[in-house]
Write a structure and sequence with these properties.
binds flavin-adenine dinucleotide; alpha+beta; eight-stranded mixed beta sheet; 2 domains; FAD/NAD(P)-binding domain
């Protein structure tokens, strides 16, 4: 069969999740010729349903905020429940240090990702679904496009620059064997959608519930997420350690679906989850699971490419940070690339490298803050701070700001919080 002639774009984006769609949309807004290749056909299921207020300025900049306001449930805060000690607290985003964005959204990701992908197309991105990128074209050291398989077969697409937004497939990082697991975060998530989960009235109706459960006061915490959707469904997931799975698996009834039985065992192990789910019904036939998801990637930047979103690493979902890092990182990367394309200077060299390394440092700074927070939570001290009675206003504001995703700032509170998190881990 004759190979079709190569096409040429300024930028090719691999993947149409939040990272890819936001990056492509922003580039197109700034006049760049972009092709986005997505292997699935949307809408498709995806994890990652609770957003953070810190991403809202990006979603506003690419023009989707009015659609999100009309379509999804507003999330004004986060509630934490501690089973063992019967403690609870609620953090409302307008109590953050910055406090200018008082809400985010709870989003079934099939619908949310579709809104973002369609928006990218409206802004002029050439969006192609059902296209799988199979590898990078290289000219010497530099990436100069991608090979892909589309509905009509193999294709070669040349580009000045490639954005890897392939999610946890992490196309470039896996090809370079450049991923590494994050110490002590080898958790498993077991999840399903429910209907009939009771909700409070008013603004707290859209809160995410984080329910912490463990064998004893000193045991490592396991936890549930409960994320309410506008249509009455609730996403429920248990995040547990590998040891917990091993121990429970040995006690399961062999005739039952194992994942669903493990999910039921987690609910049975948590008083608060049991109470919140009493009267609710699982609407999926079976629970699903995903394991060992936290990893770092060595480089987010190379000659002719960047990795955004999960393609550049993933942190345990305790603080719902994945889509936020993808959205904010993607927009910032697009701004760097658009500037250089406008100046016709995207051809490698020291200046390009320095601009992209500065972007990488900014993004890693935010991500490492969340990693510290997650580790300090599992180690215990951050959990104690979250549940502390009569918290000092400054501590409450700092926790709320972290939960809102305000990690790309050099504000004093954030520098102070990072130091405290490091101290917590050194105890
Ligand atoms: C248990 C769990 C719970 C989570 N909960 C939350 C939460 O509450 N809030 C939150 O913000 N985040 C959460 N996350 C994280 C969230 O799912 C991700 O961080 C987020 O989806 C990252 O977006 P992305 O665009 O980088 O990747 P993705 O959303 O994964 O998108 C990548 C896209 O690339 C496509 N693709 C992959 N390979 C190719 C290829 N070769 N060619 C073409 N297309 C390709 C895929 O089909 C996919 O559509 C959770 C994650 C887990 C594991």
């Amino acid at each position: 069969m004759k190979t079709p002639p190569a096409e040429r774009f300024d930028v090719v984006v691999v993947g149409g999740g939040p990272g890819g769609s936001v990056c492509a949309a922003r580039l197109a807004q700034r006049g760049v010729r972009v092709l986005l290749l997505e292997k699935e056909r949307f809408p498709r299921f995806h994890l990652g349903e609770s957003l953070l207020p810190g991403s809202m300025h990006v979603l506003e900049a690419i023009g989707v905020l009015p659609t999100l306001e009309a379509t999804f449930l507003q999330k004004y805060g986060a509630r934490f429940h501690d089973d063992v000690r019967g403690r609870r607290d609620r953090f409302q985003f307008d109590g953050a240090w910055r406090g200018d964005r008082d809400h985010a959204f709870e989003v079934p990701r099939d619908a949310f990702d579709h809104v973002l992908l369609k928006n990218a197309a409206i802004l002029g991105v050439d969006v192609r679904e059902g296209w799988t990128v199979t590898g990078a074209i290289r000219e010497g050291e530099r990436v100069a496009g991608v090979f892909a398989t589309g509905p009509e077969g193999e294709a070669r697409i040349d580009a000045q620059f490639v954005v890897d937004a392939s999610g946890r497939d992490a196309l470039f990082a896996h090809a370079a064997r450049a991923t590494e697991k994050i110490v002590d975060l080898d958790q498993t998530a077991i999840f399903a959608h429910f209907e009939g989960v009771a909700r409070p009235e008013g603004k707290p109706a859209g809160d995410i519930d984080i329910v912490i459960f463990r064998e004893s006061r000193d045991a490592r915490p396991n936890w549930f997420w409960m994320i309410p959707f506008k249509d009455g469904r609730t996403s429920v997931g248990a995040v547990v350690s590998r040891a917990w799975i091993r121990e429970r698996r040995a006690r399961l009834d062999a005739s039952a679906d194992e994942t669903t039985a493990l999910f039921a065992a987690a609910v049975a192990a948590s008083k608060s989850a049991g109470e919140l789910l009493s009267g609710a019904r699982m609407i999926w036939p079976k629970a699903r699971a995903t394991a060992d998801f936290s990893y770092r990637v060595r480089d987010l930047v190379g000659e002719g490419w960047v990795a955004v979103g999960d393609a550049g690493g993933f942190i345990d979902p305790l603080f719902s940070t994945g889509a936020h890092l993808a959205i904010c990182g993607a927009k910032a990367a697009a701004d760097v690339l658009a500037e250089r394309i406008a100046a016709s200077s995207l051809r490698g060299g020291a200046e390009e490298h320095a601009a992209l390394r500065a972007w990488e440092a900014m993004l890693r700074g935010g991500a490492e803050t969340f990693i510290l927070a997650v580790q300090a939570f599992y180690a215990g001290p951050l959990m104690e701070a979250i549940f502390a009675e009569n918290k000092h206003t400054a501590l409450r504001r700092s926790i709320t700001s972290l939960l809102a995703g305000d990690v790309f700032t050099d504000a004093v509170w954030l520098r102070d919080t990072r130091l405290r998190l490091v101290e917590m881990l050194a105890r």
